Amino acid sequence: MRPSLRLLNLEVPGSRALYVCSICRQEARPRPIVARQFLRHASSNADSLSERVRRKLWGTDNPPGLKDPYGESLLEKRFGKPKPQEPEEPQVEETNELAEPSDGLEPGVSYEPATTWHGLERVGHLGRWKDAPPSEADTYGSFAPKHKLYKKGPLSLAAHQAAVEISLMQALNRPLTHVCKVVEHDKPIFKLIWKTKVLPTSPNWGESLKFHNENAKKVLFYVFEQIGGTQPEAAEQEQAVEDIEVEEFENFEIVEDPSPPAPNPRFFGYTEPRFKSATSLPLTDPAIKFAFLKRFSQLSGHYFPDNIVSQITNVKHAMQYIQGQLHPKPTKLAEQLENDKQLQTLSNVKVFSKRQTTLHRDDEKGRRKLIESELRARGLLE
Amino acid sequence: MPGSDAFRALKWLSRSSGGLLSGAETTTQRCLAKPLSRSMATEAQSPIDNLTREVPKPVWNPEPVKATTYSFPSMEPLRFVEYPRNHLLMPLRKDILHRAVVYEGDMTRQGTASTKWRDDVHGSGRKLYAQKGTGRARVGDKKSPIRRGGGVAFGPHPRDFSTGLPQKIYDQAWRIALSYRYKRGQLIIVDNEITLPEDATPHLITEIFKANRWGRPFGRSTLITDQPNESLFETVRQVGEHAKILDRRDVDVKDLLETGRLIIEKQALDRILSQHSKDLKNKPAKALY
Amino acid sequence: MPPRLQLLPFQWQRPSTLSTILTSFLHPQSRNAHILASLSDTPGAYNKRIRRGRGPASGKGKTSGRGHKGQKQHGKVPAGFNGGQTPDIVVHGERGGVNVHATDLAPINLDRIQSWIDQGRIDATRPITVRELTQSRCIHQPKEGVKLLGRGVEKDDHEIPISSVLKQPIHLVVSRASSAAIAAVEAAGGSVTTRFYTKSAIARIMRREMHPFVSMQWNKESASAGLLGTETGEQGALTEAMVMREMGFKYRLPDPTKRRDIEYYRDPAHRGYLSHLLKPLEGPSLFFRSPVERKSAAGVKKEKILPENRLW
């Protein structure tokens, strides 16, 4: 028996001893409140609120008179089951705005409200920009590549490539920064660049190149002569050059597969430069410095802030800066001391990353096991 | 010509290493002498030389500051631009920055806090009850500050909090703040205007900030444009956790010091610098005809 | 496992956190102590607040700098209160005061002008007016006008000028000029013209909304040929109408309306720009006739023709 009903029983005239106040009695009584009842049955959309009130008043399922004598009441508006089409209207509009415009209701098709969210385009309110997909204008073409170079090998490869390219442009007496117009060379050209040596003999970079052979020199000069011309033409010419190369250097075993534009591995799988002499090239001429740093950041993905640029005086400095970026000084003193080689060689100095306690010492000496076993024996440790 | 190039490079090196002595003579001497010996020392070794040749006058001829400019969304380096050393290489003066920041803060205070003194409170000045004979403490009117509902005795009244700062010091503060940014590599100069495509959404801003490491994990960034651009500002404000955007007229010294870095249009930077270099004008005033 | 409800399609979901974690690992946050937190003025720029009544070591401990006993220790004494005796201001009345009618003029001396010319900050071949003097910072602030004074004039024992610092003729237009200055400028072959200015007129002259000296009452004879010659060349006649038409000024330079001002600028001794209005023998005063005029007028009247047989 529910407690409320039990309370009701107290009202029996015989049991006067237990008095229950009228408010409590009222509270306990099952309530015939219309709105509440209606809310409980809100899921059944069979008939409206006023209809149900009318039925109750008349006491029959088919009360006489008009079906909805007073029109839609305020109560109805507040609590009533909304008409089936109303809630979907804004939804349709929203979808029209944002997603496919085709999923609006066609006039002939009858609407069936969804009971689960399976198959729905989306659920819930989408008012924030984060909920909307990016538009077409949101594509970002960055100068630096998305994936930066982190390892030393590829970094020095990039430095070597940039140095050779800038030297070639210098030798050809063409604008140095035009090399940045070609983000990636074709494999044969890259291989030629790889085989070219840069000797830091003179501050004029144009004179510092030492080619693999005469043919390589001719080809590279021809290719770099084209760079920076009108773009489509240059592309064509490069294609032509490529053909020439294919004829000339058959021993390069070029894998020509024009059909899949599969992303080449960075530097076509090369991991180390053949010559490391490029690192000592001086960066004293501002024009060369600018061109080199620009090309280097295009290849490596690391920018050089202005305060660093003024400090850089040769190629090696630029590389050191990036590596310093990658391996910054640890912020914790303990880590810094741990990395100190001089400290580690000393026999009487030990560096720990954490504070050493007696527990650590016990552990080291092997006392801990004994202590634990003793404690266990005495039942002080489980 | 390799010889002349080498000469040029050496000259450049000697200048860049902060050499006080410049001019052709000293550089040649430096080149010929042992690389590490100072020119004055060599002079001292040869007294005859010292007599015949005139002593070069030391000239302080510092190099201008070089800064890289970028094109905005792609961040492609475009060129080196030069600025005078007293614009972007001012020594850090925390006291001047402090005075400027406090001055701006004082100026920004609204100073509209207001309370009612007993005269301003609505009500009559009638004596509440007789002076004597009631057995209670003597009272005046209802509006006395010791009574509930009365006036406030020493409450705030509207006033101007602004303080003064000499213009020349304030100008210096601007250049010191920009120099501080420059010296830490946190001044990114944009050669063109900071704009976005027509129908760009905040997604693009987040993308740009992610690719360039300007966002919240890297200390946020302030974008400074020369002219206000409402659509751009609105877009950037949506990603306020990463970025802050201001136009030149809205920028204060404090804004320059706040976030991780400044991304500033070159035109805005030039205008800020030219507007805040009154203390550098050392030419006497002349009559204009 | 029951089918999971996917809240958002994959392409709309936030990027996976793995990559962000990776990048932040590779590039640790470089956040230093912020500079705004470490700003402070130099310690010497502040004075420590004096803490009164905080012990003998503070120096302001016992009596807190207020001495012993009395009203002055405990509260405040009205200003001018003489201890109950009749205050000074009642006994002796107020003294001193400010002449509200005085014109506040910026003084400028000849040696300063010469120094400015030597520095090339003022062109001596062109008229030197309040505008040139202010722009070149020869005077700090043009208050209600400029008064030319004669420092830089060397005098002998009898106060007679021998020489001056001026090395070239200059043509000046000022509000007032001392006689020594006028003499020195004219001895150097230049000219001084005094003319009427008001404070607002000077402000407009500085904004180039007004001509620095040509007004309605200015005409060819107002100043020497030297001044006008330098300004207009051979044409000579500078009139207010022409100036307004050709130079595009917005406002007219005012002329004096007060009797005292008019009289000052009518005086040839002051080299006033209205001195050409004087008739022969007329004095600058608008009220009194000049002694010469009076004498001559009286002489005419008193002349009697005596009959031949009269001696007087």
From TrEMBL, chain A:
Judging by the UniProt lineage, the source's domain of life is Eukaryota
- Look up keyword Membrane and say if it applies: no
Compositionally biased intervals (Acidic residues): 87-97
What keywords would UniProt list here?
Mitochondrion, Ribonucleoprotein, Ribosomal protein
Q: Does the keyword Cell membrane apply?
A: no
Compositional bias (Basic and acidic residues):
77-86
Q: Where does it mainly reside?
A: mitochondrion
Q: Where is this region: Disordered?
A: 77-108
Q: Which GO terms describe its cellular component?
A: mitochondrion; ribonucleoprotein complex; ribosome
State where the protein is found. Mitochondrion
InterPro entries attached here? Answer: Ribosomal_m50 (IPR018305)
An example of a Pfam family matching this protein is Ribosomal_L50
Q: Which family does it belong to?
A: Belongs to the mitochondrion-specific ribosomal protein mL50 family.
Q: What is this protein called?
A: Large ribosomal subunit protein mL50
Q: Which organism is it from?
A: Aspergillus ibericus CBS 121593
Automatic annotation (TrEMBL), chain B:
| Gene Ontology molecular function | structural constituent of ribosome
One GO term under biological process is: translation
Q: Provide the residue span(s) of the region labelled Disordered.
A: 132-158
Q: Name one Pfam family in it.
A: Ribosomal_L4
Keyword Ribosomal protein set for record: yes
Which superkingdom is the protein from? Eukaryota
User: What does UniProt give as the signal peptide span?
Assistant: none
User: What keyword terms does UniProt attach to this protein?
Assistant: Ribonucleoprotein, Ribosomal protein
Naming one, the record's GO cellular component terms include:
ribonucleoprotein complex
Instruction: State the family it belongs to.
Output: Belongs to the universal ribosomal protein uL4 family.
Q: What is this protein called?
A: Large ribosomal subunit protein uL4m
The species is Aspergillus ibericus CBS 121593
Automatic annotation (TrEMBL), chain C:
Query: In this protein, which residues make up the domain named Large ribosomal subunit protein uL15/eL18?
Result: 107-193
The protein's matches in InterPro entries, at most eight in alphabetical order, are given as: Ribosomal_uL15, Ribosomal_uL15/eL18, Ribosomal_uL15/eL18_sf, Ribosomal_uL15_bac-type
Give the GO cellular component terms, alphabetically: mitochondrial large ribosomal subunit
Identify the stretch(es) annotated as Disordered: 44-83
Look up the domain of life of the source. Answer: Eukaryota
Q: Does the keyword Ribosomal protein apply?
A: yes
Ranges annotated as biased composition (Basic residues): 63-75
Which Gene Ontology BP terms does the record give? Answer: translation
Q: Mind listing the UniProt keywords for this protein, alphabetically?
A: Ribonucleoprotein, Ribosomal protein
Q: Which NCBIfam families match?
A: rplO_bact
Quote the protein name from its UniProt record.
Large ribosomal subunit protein uL15/eL18 domain-containing protein
